[in-house]
Amino acid sequence: MIVGLALAVACAVGTSVAFLLKHRGAVLAPPVRARHPLRSAVDLFRSRWFAVGWGVAVGAWGLHVAALALAPLSIVQAVLAGGLVFLAVVAERFFGFQLGRRQWTGVVVTAAGLAVIGLTSGSADGDPPDYAPAALIAVECGILAVSGAVAAISTHRRVSPVRQGLLLGAVAGALFGVSDIAIKFLVDDIASGVLELISPWTAAALIASVGAFYASARGLQLGPGVEVIALTSVAANLVAIVGGILVFRDPVGTGAVEITARMLAFGLVIVGAALIPAPVRARDAPQEASGEPGTARGTEQAPS
Q: Mapped to the 3 state alphabet, what secondary structure does the chain carry?
């Protein structure tokens, strides 16, 4: 368990750095187009910053998989929730972002809420893995369907580029959460043999990861960097934690106090996530006046 938690902490730091690097590269690359996925991927990887960020993300993903193999899903996600604080610190210190008091409050409140949710779940030590296959199918398919619908809504003409970026960030996070649930199922099931990787859940993890890749990249191009990344993290954590409860039957709580604490923590997450994006109208006005709808980059200073 201790090793799994240490790996989760390393994953949280690596993921935050990777996202910030990918943001810097994505805004310098041509716009991601759904009709040209291969060309869009090539354009992204031609950007040095994005390529380096993706490499760091792959390393963080490896740490994540290892952490999932050694610790309960909900506990791992609780540790990863602390990555929001790492994200804010690194963004200000090394990437030129300027976060206001509202954003800092949202980050801290959200991270605290997610940590409480994760730490008050998880199976008791010694309990054997317990899965609900029907719930796995329902959760995976349901989130994929909702994510697709939200992504489609974000392309509507009435949705401003900044809002589109935020929506796509949330969609990417939900898809990352779907991938996490499938990976957790696979790493627990692989004890029966490597052939267990030949599974529809391997396909689900790959499909969700590819969808998240494009949604995240386009969201980073359109929306304010830290806010988009934070919403991606929040959505991924919430989906994974809910998956832990519904699919892996992590207990909701062991008593009235614990259950109440979790419900309050969910409220904190919602309030914190609402505080993280700065008021959108203030950003949209100069953007619309400039006639450059694809250049919203949040409050980051120009990279040197």
A: CHHHHHHHHHHHHHHHHHHHHHHHHHCCCCCCCCCCHHHHHHHHHHCHHHHHHHHHHHHHHHHHHHHHHHCCHHHHHHHHHCHHHHHHHHHHHHCCCCCCHHHHHHHHHHHHHHHHHHHCCCCCCCCCCCCCHHHHHHHHHHHHHHHHHHHHHHCCCCCCHHHHHHHHHHHHHHHHHHHHHHHHHHHHHHHHCHHHHCCHHHHHHHHHHHHHHHHHHHHHHHCCHHHHHHHHHHHHHHHHHHHHHHCCCCCCCCCHHHHHHHHHHHHHHHHHHHHCCCCHHHHHHHHHHHCCCCCCCCCCCCCC
130-154 pLDDT, tens digit each: 566 788 888 889 999 999 999 999 9
Counted domains in the chain = 1
**pLDDT-flagged residues of the chain (< 50):** 122-126, 128, 280-304
Decide if 298 is inside a domain.
no
**Domain that includes residue 25, residue range:** 2-290
Tell me: the pLDDT tens digits for 80-108? Answer: 777 788 888 899 999 989 888 888 999 88
